[in-house]
Write a structure and sequence with these properties.
heterodimer; A: 253 residues; mainly alpha; 10 helices; 2 strands; 2% strand; B: 305 residues; Rossmann fold; Alpha-Beta Plaits; 6-stranded mixed beta sheet; 4-stranded antiparallel beta sheet; 28% strand
């Protein structure tokens, strides 16, 4: 294992975060605060509680997930797309590094960034709502798993994208709707039965459900389904990345 | 002893272009070999394939005895690549970007070594500057610094002096000289034939994906190079006299001189007799001049064949 290469990629990517601190960290935090004000204070005043949980508190896991998933995809996709765009990817391809090491470097950095953002949002939410976490260790573990999984997805998007428009297409047209419709701001049981069935096909719903369980000991679907969904999704992402590096698709002619 | 051994290497691009066609090439340890050829001949494809940037369909590449596909970690650590185009992350500092490459090649940060590399390339004073703030020539130096950051045994220079000013070109030549003296094997592609003529030990001519020949530069120059004697007259000559017809002289456009091609390696060049025969014709000589065909002339004549 070329640990120096992993460290070099990780360090290089993290340096980019600190160079663009406002865009990387402050901007998503401000967006989340706005969500708290709009959904928690304005709209939440009409809903009061869901399953005895104050609505402002109920949306916290969903809000963290919304930002973390978006940021994971954006960070990882940009991280690998930028060297492709600049042409500096030649260094990675001519260096003694394996696909696994490149992936660990980029995905590790992207996941770290989104994990930091997730924790900042959590800290911020304590300022707005009274919040207690039932399973804090699981909450951290689940947050980490989701950061890594969606960074893997972002990494794939970054490799497959041919331009900046395509880079933004998947997060904008797929991830955002899936997170919004995956129960970020409501319990699934609040939907009409037809839409409840439709929601079961939304993989993000399983992630939000288990994450909410870590907070409130309450989940929309059985935990095992959520863990299985996360595992399957991660395996698919790893398999696709392995195939890309094995075949050189979009990387090597 | 060869450090790069290429046998029956073929590469076909997705669009069907046969970029490399059963290429065989041996690169000796410590030598400078210049890959010459017209645009699209396959020079960059060959380098890219050795480095792992491109996949090849068939054939084998061995670097220091290791296979570039199955033992890529060993082979890639030995190679430093300076690509044709400048490709750098614009928002990174000079030092960080060079350190990044060193890490990528599996080496820990070594400040002393990186300082030496940057100083050799006159980049030390600019180490804290962002890449985007550098001039084109400085960026080219950074590309070289990155390629040298892991102290490679083999250096690939793909058109290293294309579009650079005279000062940088001379610096680059000095650096190549220094590296060669330190035992680094250098594979160079260039469009500046005089560059190859000046630096290379051997010349490989590649065209349409095939290696036409690989030969020692001096031997090639001696074999293919011709010398020419230009004899200038005081007054124009209308035609070559019958007594000089055996010399196959060519009259210049202004008819004030004739050219005589001869072989320096031949036992007799015929110059003494020619000058005597010219004197017998009564022509008055003004000046004599000799010239040797350059590698460029040889290159052009070979490509046209």
């Amino acid at each position: 294992m070329n640990l120096y290469a992993i460290t070099a990629i990780y360090r290089f990517e993290m340096a980019r975060t600190f160079r663009t601190l406002v865009q990387s960290i402050i901007s998503p935090v401000i967006s989340t605060v706005l969500y708290f004000i709009v959904f928690g204070a304005a709209i939440g005043s009409g809903i009061q509680t869901i399953d005895n949980i104050h609505y402002s508190a109920f949306i916290v896991p969903g809000l963290i997930m919304l930002t973390v998933l978006m940021q994971s995809v954006a960070n990882a996709s940009f991280g690998i797309y930028f060297p492709k765009f600049l042409g500096t990817i030649y260094e990675h391809l001519s260096a003694p590094v394996s696909f696994l090491e490149i992936t660990i470097g980029y995905v590790g950095a992207a996941a770290t960034k989104s994990f930091i953002i997730g924790m900042i949002i959590l800290a911020t939410s304590f300022l707005f709502v009274p919040l207690s976490i039932s399973h804090p260790v699981w909450m951290v573990v689940l947050l980490l798993i989701n950061c890594i999984t969606f960074s893997l997805l972002g990494f794939i998007i970054g490799i497959l994208s041919n331009n900046f428009e395509q880079l933004n297409l998947v997060p904008m047209l797929i991830i955002t709707p899936l997170v919004f419709l995956g129960g970020s701001f409501y319990a699934i049981e609040m939907l009409p039965s037809f839409w409840q069935t439709v929601t079961l096909f939304n993989p993000v719903m399983y992630l939000i459900s288990v994450f909410r369980w870590a907070f409130f000991d309450f989940a929309d679907v059985p935990l095992i389904y959520s863990f299985l969904a996360t595992l399957v999704f991660s395996l698919i992402c790893v398999s696709v990345i392995f195939w890309i590096f094995k075949t050189g698709y979009k990387l090597k002619n | 002893m060869s450090i790069i051994s290429i046998s029956k290497l073929s590469k076909v691009y997705d669009d069907g272009t046969n970029a490399l066609d059963e290429v065989n090439l041996e690169v000796n340890k410590g030598e400078i070999i210049a890959l010459l050829g017209p645009n699209g001949a396959g020079k960059t494809t060959l380098i890219s394939t050795i480095c792992g940037l491109l996949k090849h369909e068939s054939g084998q590449i061995k670097v220091d005895g290791y296979d570039t596909v199955t033992e890529y970690r060993k082979t890639r650590r030995l190679i430093g690549l300076v690509p044709q185009e400048i490709m750098l992350e614009p928002f990174e500092t000079v030092y960080d970007t060079v350190r990044f490459t060193r890490g990528l090649f599996g080496y820990p940060e070594n400040r002393k070594f990186l300082e030496d590399v940057l100083k050799k390339l006159s980049l030390w004073d600019k180490r804290k500057q962002m890449i985007k703030e550098l001039s084109g020539g400085m960026k080219r130096r950074v590309m070289i610094a990155k390629a040298l950051s892991h102290n490679p045994k083999i250096l690939f220079l793909d058109e290293p002096t294309a579009g650079v000013d005279v000062e940088l070109r001379r610096d680059m030549w000095s650096l190549v000289d220094l590296l060669k003296n330190n035992g680094v094997t250098i594979l160079l592609t260039t469009h500046y034939i005089e560059e190859a003529e000046m630096m290379a030990d051997r010349i490989a001519l590649i065209d349409k994906g095939k290696v036409i020949f690989v030969e020692n530069k001096d031997a090639l120059m001696a074999r293919m190079g011709k010398k020419e004697l230009t004899i200038k007259f005081k007054s124009p000559i209308t035609k070559i006299p019958e007594s000089l017809s055996n010399y196959k002289l060519k009259i210049s456009k202004d008819r004030l001189s004739v050219m005589y091609a001869y072989d320096t390696k031949a036992s007799r060049t015929g110059i003494t007799r020619l000058l005597r025969d010219i004197a017998d014709t009564g022509f008055v000589l003004e000046d004599l001049e000799t010239s040797q065909s350059s590698l460029e002339d040889i290159f052009v004549s070979l490509i046209r064949k």
